[in-house]
Amino acid sequence: MSTASATPQSARALARDRRRQAWSRNWQTFRSHRAGLVGLGILTGFLLVAILAPVIAPAEGLEVTKATGGVLEPPSSEYWLGTDDKGRSVLTLLIWGARISLFVGLAATLISMVIGTLMGLTSGYFGGWTGAVLFRLTEWFLVIPFLPLAIVMATVLGPSLVNIVIVIGVTSWPGTALLIRAQTLTIRERPYLERARVLGAGPTHQIRKHILPNVMPMVFANTTLTVAIAILTETTLSFLGLGDPTRVSWGSMLDDAYSVGAITTGSWWFFVPPGVCVVLVVLSFTLVGQALEEVLNPRLRER
Amino acid sequence: MTILGRADYGRGGESQEDNLDSASSGRHGTYGRYVLSRCLGALGSLAFMLVLSFFLFRVMPGDPARTLGRGRFTSPEQLEEFNRTYGLDQPMLQQFVTFLKNTLTGDLGISLRYRVPVSDLILDRMWPTILLVGTSTILAGVIGIWLGVRGAWERGGKFDRISTGGSLTLYSMPEWWLGLLFIAVFAVGWGPIPGLFPTGGLHSIDAEPGTISGVLDTMWHLFLPVLTLTLAYLADYALIMRSSLLDELGEDYLTTARAKGLRDVQVRNRHAVRNALLPATTVVALSLGFVVTGAITIETVFSIPGLGLLATEALSVPDYWVLQGTFLVATSAVILANLAANLAYGLLDPRVRT
Fold first, then answer.
1. Contact: A148, B315; criterion CB under 8 Å
2. Radius of gyration, alpha carbons of chain A
3. N or C, fewer C-beta in 10 Å, chain A?
4. Within an 8 Å CB–CB cutoff, is residue B53 touching chain A?
């Protein structure tokens, strides 16, 4: 693939070159997935809003004592999306909610990925006792229904932002672990690993230098799908009142809207926008994840 | 080849029960061993669940008595009394043995809120959940499989794009939010649409259960919740079935079937779908947890007095024994359903019996 160049290159430069080529090739493939691109665009938009929240909507708009609007006012030129039951602008809440929802989604996914990858790698690479025990543990966790476990853990730990992240991270790793394990099992038997073993590479070297780089693309694609599920779970847990009571998230907005009866009074501006945001973000993560999977997994592309 | 093999197996499968013990040779033995290993796996999961729930409720938070009775004790005597009632003053191992004995004999503790045994509460609240979840699962399964099959068969076509787009959107939606929208539009009424359905509950106050009008009344109450849950579940089924059938499309046996002169519908229903259903079963079995999730949130939103509402009502107290009881019931149900799906899969597809 590499272009014939007159000057000899160092191994590192070669590797860098090849990696760059792979990236641009993957980006070309990704660009041909329209749905994935749209998802990426929407996500970038939400990410910008989340990061720029203090600039777009001053934080004092969140304080109940400084609320200027009336109770559940419909949308007007002053409050584009109306006000909530405490007179705060729904748009401000929505913008700040994006921060919490995205943060929880990403942080929980990070935890889940680390646990899942570690469990998958070790149970796949080491056969025998260790592998079997870790595999069983993964399987046991996998069949335990997600929400009841998350509810129980959230209740026991108490409501706070960090606890929500921990609860979602700790309950959502088994799927990733199984995926990584299956991948590790096939890579372990490949000739180049046999060669590495013959040359005296220890387990750490083999995992770090050969197996991990090979499973990373899978982890990456899986990450985007896990973020989607983590955000959905955060919304559901907050709706059930298990979220951090001091922070505004899309789930806690829906909880508020439900408990003050916005649904029966027809105050649609309070309960429709947060849900739409959740759907948009989760759908985008799913679309990007699917596109990534197809880019990184050629077997899926063929059909 | 595949089809012959499976038909052949099907005949053997009917009489396998009486052969379980002589697990030495032939197909019967293989399935017997498969059943045994799956059952052991399920038992392991159940044991793990028991240990997990014991630790979650007793060990994790520093002082169980304080957490369990959150702010309810004013004097040391009360605290001591509480510790004694729940056996919290005994050594950990002793507590675990007591917990096991109680749980396995159906004693799940007394609800802090209702002051009745948790097992009675659960038995009482079980039927609405089974009715709701059962109806929705069956409807979603039938519609979802149909959508997935048609989408995959005409992949890239208009139908496929609409049904896949719709499924993905439903999949990305918190199902309870969809329920809230339905309540706002069809129960409260929005603009020109009048409120046609009740906002929640299982039946009207004056309805008499057992009579035809009582049954109709319950159906009227359950219409929106069942609709919401069906939509939430069918997204999963449709997506799984679609990708499973897509995997089969390139297979040689389909070309053979076409070459034999079978019509398109026959190729699809008799050959492709039959094979695609099997992997779909496993994926569905693995994601059974989402059925429980739906039950919990939809019952909460529509105030249906089932297990899900029991659990979320227990959250605000917090009523730990009720939470633990519902957790145990939900988890065991999923483990057993998973086992059933696995056993059925092994019966239908000899290849998975390793």
1. no
2. 23
3. N
4. yes
pLDDT at B291 over 90: no
Q: Which two tokens stand for residue B168?
A: 């993905």
What residue type is assigned to position A75 of the chain? P
Task: Say how far apart CA A254 and CA B1 lie, in whole Å.
Answer: 55
Partners of residue A144 in chain B, C-beta under 8 Å: 45, 48-49, 52, 289, 331, 334
Q: What is the DSSP string of A176-229?
A: HHHHHHHHHHHHHTSHHHHHHHHTT--HHHIIIIIIHHHHHHHHHHHHHHHHHH
pLDDT digits (tens, 9 = 90+) for B105-148: 888 888 877 888 889 999 988 899 989 998 998 899 899 999 99
Q: Calculate the dihedral angle through the C-alpha atoms of B153, B159, B164, B167, rounding to the nearest 10 degrees.
A: -120
Token digits for B161? 């794009």
Q: How far is residue B215 CA from its own chain's centroid? A: 25
pLDDT tens-digit series, residues A241-294: 888 888 889 999 999 899 888 888 878 888 999 999 999 999 999 999 888 888
Q: ipTM of this model?
A: 0.86
Residue B60 touches chain A, beta carbons under 8 Å:
yes
Instruction: Summarize the confidence of residues B76-96 as an average pLDDT.
Output: 73
The whole-number pLDDT of residue B231 equals 93
Which range has the worst mean pLDDT, A1-10, B7-16, B231-240?
B7-16
Q: If you average pLDDT over every residue of chain A, what do you get?
A: 85
Task: Identify which has the larger pLDDT, B26 or A156.
Answer: A156
Contacts of residue A57, defined as CB under 8 A and 6 or more positions apart, other chains included, come to: A89, A91, A92, A95, A96
Using CA coordinates, name the residue in chain A closest to B54. A152
pLDDT of residue B20: 38
Continuous H helices in chain B = 2-13, 26-58, 64-68, 76-85, 92-104, 118-153, 158-171, 175-182, 212-248, 252-259, 264-266, 273-286, 289-301, 307-316, 320-348
Name the nearest CA neighbour of B103 among B93, B114, B91, B95: B95
Structure tokens at A68: 């200027």
What size, in residues, is chain B? 354
CA distances (Å), origin A63, targets A52, A80, A87: 18, 18, 10
DSSP reduced 3-state for B87:
coil
